[in-house]
Design a protein that fits this description.
180 residues; single chain; Arc Repressor Mutant, subunit A; Rna Polymerase Sigma Factor, Chain: A; mainly alpha; 2 domains
């Protein structure tokens, strides 16, 4: 219920910002700043770089907000911009090929165990960071930002089936690392 109210508030701010309200634009940016920053950090693995990308994302949002036809889609739209900016930077800097893909990193953690070891929880961001950017984006949106498969597909501008396959690939890659 609280998420729906927040979504309605964001929609109102979008409409106000599209009408020229600077205060509404500031509120929109405040509402998405922290989650977008965490998402970008999960994609690029560098907080300083994520700050630069977030600035670019906010500039793009500012420039293109007037063309957003569905105010309720603001959050997914902002994630989509963040994804594109992050991938654009990764591609430009050739970090795509520099991703670590070592399949044998951790010991097996039984799926039946309800609690995970503190070491595993501590290493999880590192393990997720070693995934390909495509799988990392899907896992971050689906698990960390709690978006549905359809919302994740909309943010990444890919079919739901592709989201499912990238999610499966990323999880399988994590499982292999945990088993070795």
């Amino acid at each position: 219920m609280a998420r729906k109210a927040a979504s309605e508030q964001e929609s109102w701010w979008v409409l106000q910002a599209q009408s020229g309200s600077r205060e509404a634009l500031d509120e929109l940016f405040k509402s998405v700043q922290e989650p977008l920053f965490r998402y970008i950090v999960s994609l690029v693995n560098d907080k300083h770089l994520a700050e630069d990308i977030l600035q670019e994302v906010f500039i793009r949002i500012y420039r293109k907000l007037r063309w957003l036809r569905e105010p309720q889609a603001f959050r997914a739209w902002s994630y989509q911009i963040a994804t594109r900016e992050s991938f654009r930077y990764l591609k430009r800097e050739r970090l795509w090929t520099d991703q670590v893909r070592d399949e044998g990193v951790l010991n097996v953690v039984s799926a039946a165990e309800p609690l995970y070891s503190p070491e595993l929880v501590q290493r999880l961001p590192e393990l997720v960071g070693d995934l390909s950017p495509a799988s990392r984006a899907v896992i971050a949106l689906y698990y960390l930002h709690e978006m549905s498969l359809a919302e994740t597909a909309a943010v990444l501008d890919i079919p739901v089936g592709t989201v499912k396959s990238r999610l499966a690939y990323g999880l399988e890659s994590l499982r292999r690392r945990l088993e070795s």
